[in-house]
Amino acid sequence: MTTEFLKPLEWKDNTLYILNQLKLPEVEEYNPKRTVEEVFHAIRDMELRGAPLIGITAAYGMAIAAQHINSEDHSEFMEEMQKQASYLGESRPTAVNLFWALKRMIAKAMTLGEVSLEEKRKVLLEEAMIIHKEDIAINRAIGENLISLLKEDMTLMTHCNAGSLATSEYGTATAPMYIAKELGWDIKVYANETRPYLQGARLTAYELARGGVDVTLITDNMAGFLMSQGKIDAIITGADRVVANGDTANKIGTMSLAVLAKYFNIPFYVAVPTPTIDLDMETGKEIPIEERGHEEVTSWFGKQIAPKDIKVYNPAFDVTPNDLITAIVTEKGIVYPPFNENLKKLF
Question: Which SUPFAM superfamilies does the entry link to (predicted)?
């Protein structure tokens, strides 16, 4: 049984088309992006999100940057490419895939000193497409590794969105859910709504239901009660950055789930592609945590739901300590503690 996946982005007619996730689930609308500035705002304003997808989008953004450079001089070409990479790097600071993709595109561009400007543009677009295709294979492999930790008739919980709308096709955290469906397994999923941006309600619940997965939506503060009732067999989340000791940054609320899972003796799995692993950063204390605007908390689709001048603290991510994580599952295999030793073996 095959799965039909939503496409969060598509390159056609020399243009990047991005599914506007701000309008989901009501409207499926693809918006064209023809400039680096448009790509920047698509990432920053969360028209799309998810660490792997942000990386893919940034790669296409660099290909678009090359299309707007008119100098045949390689030094001038590289100077402008570096400038655009720095600009795109400011869009979402927590997602390490963003910087991984930008570095890869810059490294590719640096090898093209002997070719024409037209050839540079062609090769860089091909590189972005390769990054996109690689992500599809990576996600499938993550799912195949993770499903070996699961059994039929299990009930899973996930937080935020680490599915086809955050990556390519299978997603990371959702990959074993889709594979289980293809195998005919009877697996159920609880999706947390994920306040304040509601990625779980608007995106995860939407895409899993659309893909034929048995999914139930709950509010974030119901998770502990479900665990206490014995209704959850395992928790699977994605991540925006995993550092050398295994500390993991993911959507705000993830750490709370991990604490609860530890208390109720429930396995807590993190599903990530290896580009999300940042061995240059030692601990989670070093991870930059993006803070977003107050309106995400104080308003609801334009309607004020809190006192107008109330102070707001809105971190978009939290860091789950490594000792709360059962295993980190990548396309290269399953990594168990001690993470500071075993993550290095992937590379």
Answer: NagB/RpiA/CoA transferase-like
What is the distance, to the nearest Å, from the Cα of residue 53 to the centroid of all Cα atoms in its chain?
Answer: 6
CA distances from 10 to 27, 32, 258, 291 (A): 17, 10, 35, 29
Between CA 210 and CA 248 the distance in angstroms is 29
Q: Which residue from 127, 177, 121, 124 is spatially nearest to 147, judged by alpha carbons?
A: 177
Which CATH class, in words, describes the domain spanning 9-139? mainly alpha
Residues noted as catalytic: 240
Token pair for 224 = 């502990």
- Other CB atoms within a 10 A radius of the CB of residue 141 amount to 18
**pLDDT tens for residues 292-327?**
999 999 998 789 999 989 999 999 999 999 999 999
pLDDT in tens, 240-277: 999 999 999 999 999 999 999 999 999 999 999 999 99
Q: Which fold has domain 149-346?
A: Rossmann fold (3.40.50)
- CA distances, 74 to each of 58, 71, 124, 294, 336 (Å): 21, 8, 14, 44, 45
Spatial CA neighbour of 99 closest among 233, 262, 241 = 241
| Burial class of residue 105, CB neighbours in 10 A (0-12, 13-18, 19+) | buried
Q: Answer whether 64's CB lies under 8 Å from 244's CB.
A: no
| Binding-site residue set | 49-51, 92, 199, 250-251
Residue whose token pair is 């792997």: 52
Q: How far apart are CA 261 and CA 87, in angstroms?
A: 39
Binding site residue list for substrate: 49-51, 92, 199, 250-251
